[in-house]
Design a protein that fits this description.
The protein has 3 domains: 159 residues, PAS domain (Beta-Lactamase, 2-Layer Sandwich); 103 residues, Orthogonal Bundle (Helix Hairpins), CATH 1.10.287.130; 152 residues, Histidine kinase-like ATPase, C-terminal domain (Heat Shock Protein 90, 2-Layer Sandwich). 58% of the residues lie in helices and 18% in strands. Strand 9 and strand 10 form a beta hairpin. Helix 7 runs parallel beside helix 8. The chain is rod-shaped, with a radius of gyration of 54 Å. The chain binds adenosine-5'-triphosphate and magnesium ion. Magnesium ion binds next to helix 8. Adenosine-5'-triphosphate (ATP) binds next to helix 8 and helix 11.
Length: 473
């Protein structure tokens, strides 16, 4: 996946390569400019040299003094410049560097052709005689009515060689520069980007709760220190979470143990109360006391039952699916409604199953029935509704079971807390009705056990709609 950061990493070498390329072009351009200005200077110099040579040669030619002409030319043998005199037929009649017999007819040379039309001319070309690049300047001259040509030339080889070498060096520098940038980018990519990606992937996994993820620590390089720090951090976090889990387990176990211990004497108290209730007793004070003992011990029994139920659920969260089986939602919903039938009938509340689904899921039907049961019981006990609507359907690959009443509802801040243990909106009333404040915490735990959740949509005076959502796997 290409991210912005990758784009940036790719942008830098491209930018550097661009700068190197631009610099190369500028250098070559400068070089060409330098070359042409050098040649221009050479041309001007040749022009002056030719004029000077003409001044001497013209009278010699007018006197047809070839001996003097050849002497003049051979005197110039060691000069840097070469002097050539060509007759109207294109034949070389004197040359300062070579014997004239070796030279062929020069009529076809471009600078000669141009001069034959009466124009002075400068040409740069390779000379087969001199075996080098030359700058030629030709000047036509009229001798006794006939057109002779005086040509002066100088080697352009040195400057050409320098320029060529410089051009080669520049191109070489460019290639080395670009190659270097590519190698450097590759190095950065391999040594930084890839380890960075691996490190990022492991930290993302750790952040999402997968603490067993091995942190990628490169053997060396600039990421080593950072990766090591992340590794140490993740190990510490793992240890801390392990400790927390241990403590939480200890707490749950302790509560469960205490509850079990309390349950045994409580059962004895309850049976004793039942026996006492059966014995004929006319003392009104004794009867009242017996009633209080009976009610309170029943309440205590319910509380213990709920606490044990929660502890059991918490334990099951760790060994999910252990006692899961295939169940169909519609029969679970129907069973829960039937279980509450006595309660709802007694309260004169109509229960309507608006929609039900035969969808099968893997779960614990006993717990799911208990969750729906808790919700119906709450609606009966607290909402003052005259109707409860139940709806179970599939939405986005999830089962949604809602229990809706049309009663008193509650405020947002209360709704946000009712799934907490022991939280009751109206404490006095709840207690009066025998509520312990654990019912919804149990519902939430049951939903979580099925990898789902529970939420409430409610408003004061507008009723409450409790929705259990369970993913279908
Ligand atoms: N349908 C409802 N309409 C209005 N208030 C509700 C409704 N359901 C629950 N409540 C409020 O939420 C509180 C918490 O409910 P929860 O079921 O957790 O505890 P409880 O019913 O008091 O005790 P338990 O269920 O353990 O017997 C209740 O005390 C009640 O005030
Ligand atoms: Mg309840």
């Amino acid at each position: 996946m290409i991210k912005n950061r990758d784009n940036f990493l790719l942008f830098i070498p491209v930018l550097i390569a661009g700068i190197v390329l631009l610099t190369t072009f500028l250098l070559i351009f400068q070089l060409k400019q330098f070359g042409s200005s050098y040649i221009k200077d050479a041309e001007e110099e040749l022009n002056v040299d030719t004029k000077q040579a003409l001044w001497i040669i013209k009278p010699i030619l007018e006197n047809n003094d070839y001996a003097k002409l050849n002497k003049y030319c051979s005197d110039m043998k060691n000069e840097k410049m070469r002097l050539t005199i060509i007759n109207p037929a294109g034949k070389v009649i004197a040359d300062s560097k070579t014997g004239i017999n070796k030279l062929d007819n020069h009529s076809n040379r471009p600078e000669i052709k141009a001069a034959q039309t009466g124009q002075s001319n400068t040409t740069i070309r390779y000379s087969n005689t001199m075996h080098s690049e030359m700058v030629y300047h030709s000047e036509p001259v009229m001798i006794n009515g006939e057109g002779y040509i005086v040509r002066v030339s100088v080697s352009a080889d040195n400057i050409e060689k320098v320029l060529n070498r410089a051009e080669k060096n520049i191109i070489l520098t460019f290639l080395i520069g670009t190659g270097g940038v590519i190698i450097l980018s590759l190095y950065i990519f391999l040594r930084v980007r890839i380890p960075f990606n691996k490190l990022q992937q492991s930290t993302i996994k750790i952040a999402s709760g997968n603490l067993d993820t091995e942190v990628y620590v490169p053997k060396n390089g600039i990421l080593w220190e950072l990766a090591r720090a992340v590794d140490i951090m993740s190990k510490q976090l793992k240890r801390q979470i392990k400790n927390m889990k241990k403590m939480e387990n200890f707490r749950s176990e302790f509560i469960a143990n205490v509850s079990h211990e309390v349950k045994t004497p409580l059962t004895s108290i309850l049976s004793a109360v039942e026996i006492l209730d059966g014995i004929d007793n006319t003392n009104p004070r004794a009867k009242k006391c017996l009633k209080i003992i009976s009610e309170q011990s029943k309440r205590l029994n319910r509380l213990i039952q709920d606490i044990l139920s929660l502890a059991d659920l918490e334990k099951k969260q760790i060994f999910k699916n252990r006692d899961f089986a295939e169940l169909s939602i519609n029969s679970t919903v129907e069973n829960a409604v039937n279980l509450c039938r006595g309660l709802t009938d007694a309260a004169g509340i109509e229960v309507v199953i608006e929609e039900n689904t035969p969808t099968k899921i893997f779960g614990n039907s006993y717990f799911l029935e208990q969750a729906i049961n808790n919700l119906i019981t709450n609606a009966v006990k607290y909402s003052k509704t005259d109707k409860i609507v139940i709806n179970a359907h599939v939405e986005n690959n999830e089962i949604k079971i809602s229990v809706k009443d049309f009663g008193i509802g509650m405020k947002k801040e209360e709704a946000a807390r009712i799934f907490e243990r022991f939280y009751r909106v109206d404490k006095a009333r709840s207690r009066e009705l025998g509520g312990t404040g654990l019912g919804l915490a149990i519902v939430k735990n049951i939903a979580k056990l099925h990898n789902g959740n529970v939420e409430v949509i409610t408003n004061p005076g507008r009723g409450a709609n409790f929705i259990i959502t369970i993913p279908i796997i």
